[in-house]
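TL;DR need structure tokens for one chain.
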Amino acid sequence: MRKALPLLLLPLLLAAVPALAQQQAQYSQYMNNNYILNPATTGVEDYIDVKASYRTQWTGLEGAPKTYYLSASSSLGKWRTTGKRTLRDRRRPFHAIGGLIYNDQTGPTSRKGAYLSYAYNLVLRPNLRMALGVSAGMQQFAVDGQQLQFFDPTTVAASDASRVLDGTIGIWVYSSDFYVGVSGAQLLGNKLDFSYGPTSVAPGEGNSLKRHYFATAGVRVPLNEEWSLVPSVLVKAVNPAPLSLDINAKLKYQDLLWGGVSWRAFDSFVAMVGLNYEQFTVGYSYDAGLSELADYHGGSHEVLVGLRLKKKAQVVCTNRFW
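>> reply
TL;DR here they are.
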């Protein structure tokens, strides 16, 4: 019975992985790249925006999540960076495209994804815009049997992967002073095409992807000519879990340096710092856990780097380095 115990628990463990309330990776610096949550932010900056991130969660805990992503987005056309723009040009809508790839590894399970996004950006007023966005791509869930450990060292678990199509939609309203957006991810709710049995991986009813909903907002509060405060909030909803709330505040100096704090309700306290110099951006955050799990790990680290590729010498950025 002792040798059989891991095999009896294994189906429950792996079945729970895709059914967890929070299936998508956790990020602390999403406010520096809202594109990873909302495809409507595709191309809202007036440059080609490239960002990459690495996050290691719950350091010191074996099999803890590690997440990588690379994103890029840009508006189409050159009229936004044209020096001589007419009033009609300022009110003209524009199109934008982007892409995102990521890898999220947690112990023997992994989740990879690749997406393309499109956004249609309407100019409501010279300093107020609304964007509608959609992204489509594919997710892959995989189980690496070689990473599973058993009481009986001769036991070998099977490995397999399941690929499903996925889609996200979003709305984004923004200016140089505020932003607000809502989005829904994993809206197709597809099911994985395998289930884990006691001795092998075999076709089955699988587990469905849970729909995730995000609502976020932020505002810029100028303190003087050099300093500004940017409070923001994020609400996440995933059935059947309760709502998740993040409250953030960034203090910025001349759109160059910034420091911030974040409180993820009843889960963690986050400290952040970053630098924005010419076309380069870098940010670092540390999560100190507040839950009972905090006694077993050393917190979470996240690094974000960005590159802003100019289309022309003149750059007009409505968001002004949020």
